[in-house]
Amino acid sequence: MDNLDRDLIDCLLEDGRASYAAIGQRIGLSAPAVKRRMDRLVDDGVIAGFTAVLDPHLIGWTTEAYVEVHCKGTISPDELRAAFGRVPEVHAAATVSGQADAILHIVAKDVRDLERALERIRVETETVDHTETAIVLSRLIDRHGPRQGRI
């Protein structure tokens, strides 16, 4: 990856719908050259995909929480992934070191919806012993949101 690739990625992070021509104008390349670089970045796995980034609050999802999941015995990451994947409010999940087995980022419509999601997590994963939930009061930094982040 060189500086032109980084500049191209910065353009995409600012506006994922920018045309090849618009990106090329900003970074000093022709539209076909931008397309070739983007294709290479996709082929190399640097760009893993393209998606729409939504503002959860604007579509009515006003409750956000981080949930530590503590399991009975051992459970494989694949089993956890499958179970958590069946709960649409789970926006991200990771296995972690420490006392918890996994941590979840949940976005829900409200506290009642969060409670239902937590119950589904306990049901979908029979080995869940207990969860510890921290509800987000305010976001201080969010580098994954729209028009954020530079590489």
Q: How does this structure look, described?
A:
There is one protein chain. This protein is α+β, with helices and mostly antiparallel strands. Helix content is 37%, strand content 20%. It is built from five helices and four strands. Strands 2-3-1-4 form a four-stranded antiparallel β-sheet, with helices on one face. Strand 2 and strand 3 (102-108) form a beta hairpin. Helix 1 crosses helix 2. The protein is elongated, with a radius of gyration of 19 Å. It starts with a helix and ends in a 16-residue tail after the last strand.
Give a concise summary:
The chain has 5 helices and 4 strands.
For this entry, give a set of tags.
single chain; 151 residues; alpha+beta; 4-stranded antiparallel sheet; 5 helices; 37% helix; elongated; disordered C terminus
Largest β-sheet summary: 4 strands, antiparallel
| Average residue-wise pLDDT | 90
SSE ordering: HHHEHEEHE
Structural class: alpha+beta
